[in-house]
Amino acid sequence: MRMFLHNFFLPVLRVLRASARTLVFAFAPFLAFAQFTDNFSDGDFTGSPAWVGNTADFTASGNILNSNGPQASSVIYLATANTLIDSAEWNFLLRLDFNPSSTNQVRIFLVSDQQDLSGSLNGYFIQFGESGTAADSLDIFRQNGSTTTKVFTGVSGIMTSSTTNSVRIRVVRHTGGTWDVYADKTGGTNFTAEGSFTDNTITATNYFGVVADYSTASRYNLYFFDDFSIGNIVADTTKPTVVSVNMASNTLIDVTFSEPVDLSTAQATGNYSIDNSIGNPFLAVAGSSSLVNLAFSNAFVSGPVYTLTITGVKDGAGNLMDAYSFQFALPDIAAPGDIVINEILFNPSTGGYDFVELYNRSNKVIDLKSLDIFEYDISDPLTYLEKASPLTAQTYLLLPEHYVVLTEKASNIQQNYSVQNPAAILEVSQLPNYDDNQSICVLRNSSGLAIDSLAYDHNWHFALLDIEDGVSLERIDYNKPTQDKNNWHSAASTVGFATPTYRNSQFSETGITGDEIKIEPEVFTPNNDGEKDFTYINYKFTEAGYALNAKVYDTKGREIRILARSELLGSEGKLMWDGIDDDNQKARTGIYIVYLEVFNLQGKVRRFKKEVTLGAKLN
Questions:
Q1: Which domains does the chain have, with CATH numbers?
Q2: How many Å apart are CA 490 and CA 556, to the nearest integer?
Q3: 201, 282 Cβ separation under 8 angstroms
Q4: CB 454 within 8 A of CB 342
Q5: Is the pLDDT confidence value at 375 over 70?
Q6: How many CA atoms lie within 13 A of 584 on its CB side?
Q7: What is the pLDDT of residues 295-329, one digit of tens each?
Q8: Phi first, then psi: what are they for 271, rounded to 5°?
Q9: CA dist., res. 408 & res. 353, Å (int)
Q10: Secondary structure E strands in 361-458
């Protein structure tokens, strides 16, 4: 089971406990406290500070330290003086342009009593490079003489690329030997907690440095280092925050905080509560320094949207978190018609991107991770051309009566249109590139069952549009058939020709009561301003099986438009007239007669005449 991050779908929910991580600290070089810093901006590493060791096997061109050793199996190192170990923090950037292994690895010595980092020493080092096929993690070892002991293992998967791996690392050592480890595996400045450990075996240091150990000759120049900084710990004034919530079962919840938290407050059950008769957990246990596992007596069930409230949790420095509320629900399985295609932009302006808006018209909470979207060939509806499968790799749940917009570039949609709810834009890695004229858009679940489909045609656009590019087609009524072309209309000019993330400008749920035929509105102004751009001829019969002929006449009896010819009707429905005549021209302002003739196979015929006024707005 997975959780739902509401706040209009604040995206990210981690399914695996160990992968739930997020922003902890923004990196900055701690110049005011630093024992040393070096960003190699001077293109040199022989002074200020001075590095020693295999100096001929490294370069500092391009404002970065780069290995340049022998093109044969080698171990090369550089070291620089450092005596700071208590209440200290180390910061640096590491880049490996290969996937490390047990025979092609890197070591960064945070602590060493010897200058020669390739020999016997006493110290601690970070290592990337493991045996086997498992994804690499950030590991820390203690070295005593020539014996090494692993004292910490970080999150798996920090280095996975065979071409470029950039990791920025922050390590903090408190007096007494407690270490906190943080990393940003993108090489940026958004650190995440890797974890903590305690080891106070070695309490003094003389050197800091790096070791490149490779058996593959081509790795000789693929080690890069930058932005070294060692200094005193900067006082922590940052409040802890909740970065992810994961449902492990229908009674267990995992809460991950942005940093290590104080156990006495993090394990207090009264600091957590859930509404809808769930209450407080009967158990709160720290799974790690920043992860708390909550166990509840009452099970969560499908249907309700729950709110988890967290208060009173502090970090190790005593900073109290702000009160936090988090909404979640158990997802349901999407069935045909639960979610409908509500708006589509298939012909964006130059430089723009397609989008498809979905609307959840059911009472279910549905996980979009279980859905994909296709483009099918209009000439061969059994053959798909492109697909986005799945829509998202992370859990993203859609609440009843809510919208989500699928696009490859969220920022582009926000730049070009009025977006009332940016959080309801879901950026997908690859949305089908829908044809500008006609194609088929299909939403399917993981079982291959079509949830909704739309075979659109650009001729459905308002006939008097000067340019169709950048204008979306909007669904008029959620509850009317998707494939009814009369249920679609160009988005209004007054809203900027599209309404991503909110109610369509052409939305209508008009109906009739009493009369069998009703015109709404009786006066309309088809100028595409979003207000009374068309009129509906609503019908409702007590029996089904009628066919319909419908025409529009002017007051002189001349036929203006054929709306339907022997069209089979349901028991109720509606026709739309947009003010366009059969010559594809806008009809003149004035009064018109809508003539309807309905008949069935039993020979029953009924005729109706209704007046409608086509008006024009005065500027």
A1: 34-232 (2.60.120.200), 238-328 (2.60.40.1220), 339-495 (2.60.40.1260), 517-614 (2.60.40.4070)
A2: 31
A3: no
A4: no
A5: yes
A6: 7
A7: 999 999 887 889 999 999 998 788 999 999 988 88
A8: -85, 0
A9: 7
A10: 366-367, 371-377, 380-388, 397-398, 403-407, 425-427, 438-445, 450-457
